Amino acid sequence: MDPLSAAHLLDACERGRALPAASRALLLLGAAHPDEPPGALAALPVGRRDARLLRLRERTLGPALEIETRCPACDERLELTVPGADLRAASPAAAPEPLRLDHNGTTVTFRLPTSRDLLDATDADGLLRRCVLEAHDSNGEPVADLGHEVRAALAQAMAEADPLAEVDLAMTCVACGHEWSDVLDVASFVWAEFEAWAPRLLRDVHRLASAYGWAERDVLAMSAWRRGQYLQLLDA
């Protein structure tokens, strides 16, 4: 996977402003994989989709995620550096589907949630129902209502089969010692980074276009290093 060009990233940020998180993730991946059918990207399990997003982010912005949060006990501002490769390592290779859960006499055959499921489901229970292919009791009779315990076990089985779909970060406050867990939404985090990057790039384009009379497409076609060199000359 090659890094996204500056022009493609600006285009994605502009087009994705009013879209939900799952659609934004597919927009970014579609720009990075122009030859892959959109339906194939939408059918990826969420964790494997996010592994691709992390790789795209690494090749475009760098290898480490800089995460900011606040301690829920004392409100201290904390910064955490997480290598994207470490997160991606938690995502297993594509597992054969469908998957199976046996819990308290109920057998559930299921698949992992995808971006399409996230877009179409209205709540967590709806998401689970979309992913259940078959459920039956110990006598082989179909089960219509899984019940709370089976649904909880199913959600846990999905998380174990696709761990990058919901990343828990263990946090410790350096000020008060409080320990807690933060959930990292990879798709939303990567989008927020690109969305914050876009205005900075546009300011650089404005400065260079104003100083040299270049068109936006010409400035965006330059490498980041070359744009930086010209900006340094303007500051000299």
| Secondary structural class | alpha+beta
* Distance from first to last alpha carbon: 36 Å
Radius of gyration: 22 Å
Q: List low-pLDDT spans.
A: none
Query: What's the total number of strands?
Result: 7
What topology, given as strand order, has the largest sheet? Answer: 3-4-5
String of helices and strands: HHHHEEHEEHHEHEEHHH
What percent of residues are in strands?
Answer: 15-25%
Q: Percent helix among the residues?
A: 40-55%
Describe the main β-sheet briefly: 3 strands, antiparallel
- Average pLDDT score: 93
Dominant shape: elongated
| Number of helices, counting only DSSP H or I runs of 4 residues or more | 11
Q: Care to describe what's here?
A:
The protein starts with 5 loop residues before the first helix and ends with a helix. The relative contact order is 0.15. The chain is elongated and about 80 Å long. With 236 residues, the protein is α+β, with helices and mostly antiparallel strands. Helix 2 crosses helix 4. The chain is built from eleven helices and seven strands. Strand 1 and strand 2 form a beta hairpin. The strands form three sheets. It has a three-stranded antiparallel sheet with strand order 3-4-5.
